[in-house]
Amino acid sequence: MTTTAILSDVRLGLAGADATVDLSLRDGEIIAVTPHADGQTGAQPEAPSDDERIDGRGLLAIPGLINTHAHVDKSWWGRPWQSFGGPPGLEGRISHERARRDELGIPGVDVTGEVLRQFLRHGTTAIRTHVDVDLGVGLRGIDVVREAVEQTCPAMRCTIVAFPQDGALRRPGVVDLLRRAAENGVEHVGGLDPAGIDRDPAGQLDALFDIADATGCGIDIHLHDPGDLGAFEFELIIERTRALDLKGRVNIAHGFALADVPAARARDLAEQMAELEISLTSVAPVGRAPMPARMLREVGVRLGLGTDGIRDLWSPYGTGDMMEIARQHARMTGARYDEELLHVLAQTSTSAEWFVGGTGEGDRESGVTGWAGGTDDPAAAVGLGVGSRADIVLLDAENPMDALVRAPARQLVLVGGEIAHDERR
Ligand SMILES: [Zn+2]
């Protein structure tokens, strides 16, 4: 018999904020939501007597957070401080990282596992991570990340992007490695500034799109190139997505150019992206113009949020807390109304399912449509209901908006219905 776990006495947040409920969890899903009654299992069907009960202590329950842009393969989290060094700029970062990596070796399963635990501590239950693929490490980093997930939390969903951090075309052999990674089952091949790094935008993009077309993988490309140059590369990506009919399989990471170019041009690009379901991921970077979030929402471009690398040879910053990133994005883009704050939380949870293999549209059968789904059902309003994944985070907050702006400690984190982190006292 599969055990049912009862996560009892939790608040779902908006309407009926004071009422607590019991969530019945089985096979990684919420199978029932019932009013909380002390000492009872509620109306949960076929309740076995040996249910595992988890005391939610009246805390607020929100869906697991989703990090859509991470680099878990090269963080030194939990290890001695690695000083920032080397010249500034993208090339400086790449050369510094290569040199230090030669001395330090690539982080192993234990180090990567520590990064994953840090994510779990903060309530992140699914990730899309870029993993370096180059002539030095080959495809080993991908195996390390997969093994680390398996050892740390097998229920944590992990989507991998094979990432040519040191360039693709300018390092002969790397495109072949990307193709092999795709043939071996990574979900996406990555790219990096086709103009700024490879200095051959059409060439790099043709190579990546050819791999995607041939193998069925997606594309998730880092695009830091700013202004007109970056916008031109947006156009090249849009052209190729359309020509090869790769609708819904392409993501642009960072995409700073969209915030640089005049609003009319940004909107024109965004409308084409929405039509082709080309998504964007942002790490809410400090010191950059913020993403035109309202316009993207109006037009219907899916935007995911991520931590980027944390404490690595690129930057000493980052804690791995997606709630901090969400708050930063909300502040930078001027979100203040409750509805806007809820939308940002959806981008960090239910809507971001799309980036890790889900639909991002909630569960149609149960009518759970996400945080801003326009439903009167309080369970649906917070993105947790019958049929939702049992990826659940408990925290001490009045409601989801309060959780976003304060980012209080995550008290309990469930992944697939199993406890992955517990700070209840
Ligand atoms: Zn990145």
Description:
The structure is a single chain. By secondary structure, the chain is an alpha/beta fold. The protein folds into 2 domains: 5-64 and 365-422, Urease, subunit C, domain 1 (Roll), CATH 2.30.40; 68-355, TIM Barrel (Alpha-Beta Barrel). It is built from 13 helices and 16 strands. It has helices at 89-104, 109-121, 140-152, 174-183, 201-215, 227-243, 257-260, 263-276, 293-299, 322-332, 338-347, 378-381, 400-406; strands spanning 5-10, 21-26, 29-35, 52-55, 60-63, 65-70, 124-132, 157-163, 188-192, 218-223, 250-254, 279-282, 303-305, 392-395, 410-415, 418-422. An 8-stranded parallel beta sheet has the order 6-7-8-9-10-11-12-13. The chain has a 4-stranded mixed beta sheet with strand order 3-2-1-4, with no helix packed on it. A hairpin with a 2-residue loop joins strand 2 and strand 3. Helix 2 crosses helix 3 and helix 4 runs parallel beside helix 5. It is globular and about 65 Å long. The chain starts with a strand and ends with a strand. 52% of the residues are buried. Mean pLDDT is 90; it is low at 362-380. The structure holds zinc ion. Zinc ion binds next to loops.
